[in-house]
Amino acid sequence: MLGIKPLASQEPSSRPSAAEQVFAQLQRQILSLELEPGSKISEAELAKALGVSRQPVRDAFFRLAKLGFLLIRPQRATTITLISENAVMRARAIRTALEVETVRTAAFTLNSEDLDALDNVIELQDVAVRAEDKQEFHRLDDLFHHEICTRAGVGFFWDLIAENKGHMDRVRMLSLSFASRDAWNDHVEIMRKLRARDVEGASEAIRDHLSRIRQQIDRIRAANHEWFAPEETDLHLRG
Question: Is the pTM of this model over 0.85?
């Protein structure tokens, strides 16, 4: 099975369960599109490739299916689900609500040390954009949003965001070839509003930033229509 490597050994005291390791590896490969939407995946072949029994693979499959990333059909092939526009827009709605509240809090609570640390992340993002390092930019993008949550004292918001943003991440990975600089510019604007203690401005900036995914879906679907589920998007989520 292409792209699947045996699980790395770890010290017993820090080793997650085999099911956790399988889940984490598959989730990463699905979200990064190493495992493409619509592709088939075999429980038996995966267990052999990873060097584990079938039970942890079965457990990981079940979790991924509940999250909407695998379609398990008994006696038939298990497949990576197509990208659901409805699921992406629902995830965006949840994330927007949480991040608007986060930046409103951050505008009041972040000190100069916090703001400088966030600016440093943005500088590293600029380096990643110039180097066309999409994976690194994606990591730093998440770090920027995570740090705002944590430094604003609402780190649990990021836990909720991380649980719900997976469907957005597949679109984000596809968009990085053309949208990284736009995302960087948005982050600069968010920081400008936070430094000015502009609560309403920061709220609007984060809304604008997260709303870009609407246009990104349209562009990506046009080039990769076979990766998207044929569905009608909930109209109230299209804004």
Answer: no
